Amino acid sequence: MHAVGIVAAAGSGLRLGADRPKALVGLGGRALVRWAVDTLHEGGVADVVVAVPANDLAAFAAVLPADARLVVGGATRTASVRAALAAVTLPARPAPDAVLVHDAARPLTPPDVVARVLTALADGAPAVVPVLPVVDTTVVVDGDGVVVDAVPRGRLRRVQTPQGFSRAVLADAYDRLPADAELTDDAAVVRAAGVPVTTVPGDERAAKVTVAHDLALAELQVAR
Ligand code: CTP
Ligand code: MG
Questions:
Q1: Cβ-based neighbours of 217, under 8 Å, separated by 6 or more
Q2: Alpha-carbon distance 111 to 40, whole Å?
Q3: Most buried of 10, 77, 78, 199 (most Cβ within 10 A)?
């Protein structure tokens, strides 16, 4: 099975509030985007396309391996993945069987997670996501913040990346998606096309770096 990786790295990182795009922020001396590309490589995905902000192509090229292919991302994550997906198949080359879409913002994802996703795809799943259980009591509040309901959490899951897809299934789902649609992940794109999404165990270390506290926690992990 030939799988190509996509790293969504074209966000600005407003909530992190750094002096550069979030994916270029350093963690243990390596840019977040480099961690994400290295995880895909170590997990068995050699060929990687990275969606980057239009104004920062050179800065991204400087921190990435020479064989990573860079494309200009879009205004939303959905648009960025759509742009990268268009670059996944090279002219005069056979189309890959599978695509794994990973967030640059999940730098410490262990390569084992990549391997589990690849195994599920090889076993025939058209779409697979790594997930973790919800451990906190989870409630619904009204507009005033008053609890109106408790949600049984036994079947709730938190969804991580990399998410894996049959390339043809993902490309078809993006083709069907309205041009301005904005979904928070790629599993939602294929689900909108009626594709079943299966799950494999995720990993707490695949946590997303969103705010400064998350980066501080990640720094503690790499310092050990
Ligand atoms: N992303 C992207 N293109 C966008 C927006 C986001 O490729 N237009 C990527 C980010 O680079 C990140 C991932 O999608 O790796 C998850 O998004 P998020 O954590 O929200 O990152 P940002 O959008 O950069 O952060 P913020 O929402 O705080 O601005
Ligand atoms: Mg965002």
A1: 207
A2: 7
A3: 10
For residue 111, cis peptide bond before it (omega within 30 degrees of 0): no
What are residue 23's phi and psi, to 5 degrees?
-65, -15
CA of 170 relative to ligand 2 center, distance in Å = 21
Q: What percent of the chain has pLDDT over 90?
A: 96
Predicted pLDDT of residue 166:
98
pLDDT at site 38: 98
3-class SS of residue 112: helix
Q: Percent of the chain having pLDDT more than 70? A: 100
Give pTM, 2 decimals: 0.97
For ligand 1, residues with CB inside 6 Å are 8-15, 22-23, 51, 73-77, 80, 103-105, 208, 210
Tokens 């879409």, residue located: 101
**What confidence score (pLDDT) does residue 92 get?**
83
Taking residues 46-60, report their average pLDDT.
Answer: 97
Atom of ligand 1 nearest to the CA of 75: 8
For ligand 1, what atom is nearest to the CA of residue 23? 11
C-alpha 88: how far from chain center: 15
Nearest ligand to the CA atom of 78: 1
What confidence score (pLDDT) does residue 90 get?
A: 87
